[in-house]
Specification:
InterPro entries: Transpep_catalytic_dom. This protein is α+β, with helices and mostly antiparallel strands and about 290 residues long. About 20% of the residues lie in helices and about 30% in strands. It has five helices and 16 strands.
Length: about 290
């Protein structure tokens, strides 16, 4: 129980630190009414006419000043992972994935039916990309090749082989989405050093993700209509901070300190991990 509590608190504390870059527009110690974006503890709000907004609102992001359609729950808390609200619903939406090789983030967007734009941010994920400046490539018409999805992606050009969970190939691109690397098809044989380097240039071409996020893309590929296209875009922009700011490994689980514990702390296929991680994310989204 002590270990479960420690992991939960670490997840909450780390993402709180990540979101702490949003300035307070009013001190909690005063009676001043906030205006615009406002953070209180680990929760983020938007104030309009002296009140917290709720539901759907199209607003300029604090981070990159672009307009997005954000969702605020009934308590006014900004939801930064819409999959925590209704996983089965959101994976079936029209989605595009934008990978930024400069910030090492991948953000999933859903299409707004009213505008036809992919301006609903679903989730931002820390990732690793190619060691070469332009090694991770996406060409015109780039999309998930849904039929390529595999539970274990085995890269056989290396000796010994490299093993990754939840691999999905990108059509008209030169890479896969998948987890960090393992020494075999055993999810308790994670190469901890490579997990700890997530958020850097460390791959040949592919996009490495935490296990929970590799599983998300795998589910989008395998549990939705095969004919529905999921577009993929690669950008290289330092100033493109995204709708929720830049996510880092430190802002999620942090590095694995005990290198003998060779499991991805977000891995939903390991008993106990999924419940702990989902609960932590629910707290951060103001659902608990």
């Amino acid at each position: 129980m002590k270990k479960v509590t420690s992991l939960l608190m670490a997840l909450i504390l780390s993402v709180t630190i990540l979101m702490g870059s949003i300035p307070m527009n009013a001190s909690a110690a005063t009676t001043e009414v906030p205006v615009g974006w406002y953070q209180q503890g680990k929760k983020v709000y938007y104030y309009e006419n002296g009140k917290k907004v709720t539901g759907w609102h199209t607003l300029k992001s604090y981070y990159d000043k672009k307009k997005y359609k954000f969702y605020f729950n009934k308590n006014g808390v900004l939801v930064t992972d819409l999959f925590t609200l209704n996983y089965k619903k959101w994976i079936k939406k029209d989605i595009t994935i934008v990978v930024n090789t400069k910030t090492h983030n991948a953000t999933l967007y859903a299409k707004d039916k009213q505008t036809g734009k992919y301006n609903i941010p679903l989730k931002t994920m820390v990732c690793s990309t190619s060691r070469k400046a332009k090694g991770t490539k996406a060409y015109s018409g780039c999309r998930l090749e849904k039929t390529s999805a595999v539970r274990w992606f085995i890269y056989k050009k290396s000796r010994p082989y490299h093993y990754y969970q939840w691999g999905v190939k990108v059509k008209h691109g030169n890479f896969y989405f998948h987890s960090a690397r393992y020494t075999t098809t055993n999810n308790r044989k994670l190469e901890v050093g490579l997990y700890n380097d997530l958020g850097t240039n460390q791959t040949t071409t592919s996009v490495r993700l935490q296990a929970v996020n590799a599983k998300l893309i795998y589910d989008i590929a395998t549990k939705t209509n095969k004919k529905k296209r999921v577009w993929v875009k690669v950008i290289r922009k330092n100033k493109e901070k995204g709708p929720f700011g830049v996510y880092t490994l430190a802002g999620t689980t942090g590095k694995i300190k005990n290198k003998k514990k060779r499991i991805d702390p977000t891995d939903p296929s390991i008993k106990g991990n999924k419940k702990i991680y989902s609960y932590a994310m629910s707290i951060l989204n103001g659902l608990k």
